[in-house]
Design goal:
It is built from 14 helices and two strands. It is mainly α. The N and C termini lie far apart (50 Å).
Length: 300
């Protein structure tokens, strides 16, 4: 389960300086089954779940949430997550927190989401630790506390959880000072763009598309490193290949202008179209402009 992306969109054709960026909560413990699930397997899973097997309860909840092999039913999914969560299954606690965060199968309740995330985080579950850090950073469901946000991001990143590595990278890229209300004027996180680049690269190499996109932008802008257009294009391409909408739009830009890749308006239009189909407003305008150039070339 993944919440809707919360990454700031970038307007226009040019790449501006990196905006303030808070990555979304990544709630899921593991990917739902990709292969077809037979009715017999579902029946066996239900029998185990009814017998109190928390792993089976968790798997059944995942299938019900995704609608794989069974009719989608978020209410029943939440009920099974709760049973597994009450038996100490950290993955289920984390996903139940996400159900409350999203209002899927239960009423939306950010405080209840935080409570379940925190239970899983305390058991050392890396995705939940990142989620707790995110909620402390944003003050959603709990009191905003940058110290606690940093603590939980670091705990999650120490387990090489990609979203937490990216969130830490953001903090180092921007720097994080203590609140002005505190007597101390110490900096909680010193601005260090080279370290931010290192953390983004760790997450990017783990296949995390938002970090691949950000790493590409850092190489494009020369932040924490020398400008390197081919390297920028390589990482943005990796993110776009995963269907990450902002990367699709930026890859269209790179092909339109020939930054790090051969200039190719047809390829540019293809990626702008993909981003537009994924709801990136700027990509619609960019696609119209490139399509106009292609039509002009045909006429000439």
């Amino acid at each position: 389960m993944i919440t809707a992306p919360g990454i700031c969109k970038r307007a226009g054709l040019l790449f501006p300086l990196l905006p303030l960026m808070v990555f979304p909560i990544f709630a899921s413990a593991q990917t739902a089954h990709s292969r077809p699930i037979s009715p017999r397997e579902i029946s066996n899973l239900r029998n185990k779940a009814n017998a109190g097997d928390s792993a089976a309860q968790f798997k059944l909840a995942e299938l019900l949430e995704s609608g794989l092999g069974v009719p989608q039913d978020c209410t029943e999914a939440a009920a099974w997550y709760r049973q597994a969560a009450n038996r100490g299954n950290a993955a289920a606690q984390n996903n139940l927190g996400a159900m409350y965060a999203l209002g899927h199968g239960v009423p939306a309740d950010s405080k209840e989401a935080f409570r379940w995330y925190l239970r899983a985080a305390a058991d050392g579950f890396a995705p939940a630790q990142n989620n707790v850090g995110y909620l402390y950073f944003t003050g959603n469901g709990t009191t905003k506390d940058d110290r606690q946000a940093l603590y939980w991001y670091q705990k999650s990143a120490a387990q090489a959880y990609p979203a937490a590595l990216s969130n830490l990278a953001h903090l180092y890229g921007e720097g994080l000072a203590l609140p002005s209300s505190e007597i101390s004027t110490a900096v909680l996180v010193p601005k260090d763009e080279q370290h931010a680049l290192k953390l983004y690269k760790q997450a990017a190499e783990l296949g995390y598309a938002p970090a691949q996109e950000m790493l590409g932008l850092l190489y494009f802008q020369g932040r924490g490193t020398q400008k390197d257009m081919p390297e920028a294009a390589r990482w943005i391409h990796k993110a776009a290949d995963q269907g990450f909408p902002l990367a699709e739009n930026h890859l269209g830009f790179l092909y339109e202008h020939g930054f790090g890749v051969p200039q190719d308006l047809k390829e540019s239009a293809r990626w702008y179209r993909a981003a537009a189909d994924h709801g990136v407003p700027e990509a619609i305008h960019n696609l119209e402009a490139v399509s106009g150039h292609l039509e002009s070339q045909k006429r000439n």
